[in-house]
Amino acid sequence: MDDLERELRxxxxxxxxxxxxxxxxxxxxxxxxxxRGRWRAGRRRRWRYLVAVLVAVLVAVLxxxxxxxxxxxxxxxxxxxxxxxxSPGPAPPTGNPSPLPxxxxxxxxxxxxxxxxxxxxxxxxxxxEQVLVADPDPAGTCRVATLLYRGGALRIxxxxxxxxxxxxxxxxxxxxxxxxxxxDFAIWIGGPHEVAYVDRTGTVRVETARLAASTxxxxxxxxxxxxxxxxxxxxxxxxxxxxx
Amino acid sequence: xxxxxxxxxxxxxxxxxxxRAGDLEAYELLVARHTASxxxxxxxxxxxxxxxxxxxxxxxxxxRSLSRYRGESSFRSWLLAIVANETRNLHRSRxxxxxxxxxAAAAHPVSETTGDVAVEAILAGERRAALVQALRRLxxxxxxxxxxxxxxxxxxxxxxxMLGWPRGTVKSRTARALVKLRGLLDREEVRRG
Lengths: 244, 193
Fold this sequence. Notes:
The complex is a heterodimer of chains A (244) and B (193).
Chain A: H1 3-11, H2 24-31, H3 43-61, H4 64-73, E1 76-79, E2 82-85, E3 104-105, H5 108-114, E4 130-136, E5 142-149, E6 154-160, E7 168-171, E8 176-181, E9 184-189, E10 193-198, E11 204-212, E12 215-220, E13 223-228, H6 233-241
Parallel strand pairs in A: 2-7
Antiparallel strand pairs in A: 1-2, 3-4, 4-5, 5-6, 6-13, 7-10, 8-9, 9-12, 10-11, 12-13
Helix pairs in contact in A: 3-4
Chain B: H1 12-20, H2 24-44, H3 51-64, H4 75-94, H5 115-137, H6 140-151, H7 156-163, H8 167-192
Helix pairs in contact in B: 1-2, 2-3, 2-4, 3-4, 4-7, 5-8, 6-7, 6-8
């Protein structure tokens, strides 16, 4: 071995290589995703959500040491602008649904002008009994449009799901499960659970925290929907599939 | 790592066999075991801040192609071949390559010493900097083989696997890279007088 070769070997110790990162948990999460093969571009994001769920599931089944890693990666599940706490949390609050910030009734035509996404009606339910808009910016553009049916016992919240941070925060507990709406992933929470609104500043508005009925969350064409009411899962999916 | 003290430490070949049979836990052990050298390889081949993404991708792809690993080379060099390939893909997609960087610490130890020792340390530091400069100017293939042979300390066999070149090419490319490097260093010294 000549001098240059020796010099090169010595140089190896002087080269900057940062400490290696911890990738085991993320690699595992990617490998446990159930769907394999090529992904259409639109599916990628949903795939990441799915990974988040799987990581959350891993938290539950892995021994404590492993759980800490997975937990740091995804303690919460984010889907379609909704954050779902998948771990069993404190007891949910009781009480009546309280309105979203600055929520007010509007005629359908006016409501459509107030939000920057198309309001679509479920053919299964027909025209809503009432339309509400909420949380306007200074220019009057609202973040959320709500369709009410059955005297307010059944509601659909719609909002631009591409915006961050999440608009709603809700406790899923072990009851959250993946279902399908229109061939895409959706989440079904089949029982009463806590839900709170996250306002424009990112603050979780505790005053709007309330106990929600069963809820289906899905996303279509960039708009996120929450369908909430006293429904069975098939009923909810049928309504969601019927969006015009 | 999750292995409890009572567990026997399994070698790579055994873990690969288990992983291939669908044991994710086994593959996870392989990932943990080889993260450091995979990461170092990606950084030295110029992945820069994307090195973490590169190795994550490499580990996922490695798992998918485990069935193609025949065990004729070490698992490490087989894996590093995937890392090298992913790094090349990265360079293609972002159109640049991060150069080798000397540790910042290299500038400091000098202040503690005096006299001849200090002068020697300064000269050694300058020499290292010149070497890094020269390496940056080497063609990609030459640099790759230098990284394998001298920085990662891979054997000729392992380098054959990692770079996917015939053995003769590895030999001749190494020799040629050293000649080029010497030329670049000489020119540099002449220029600085």
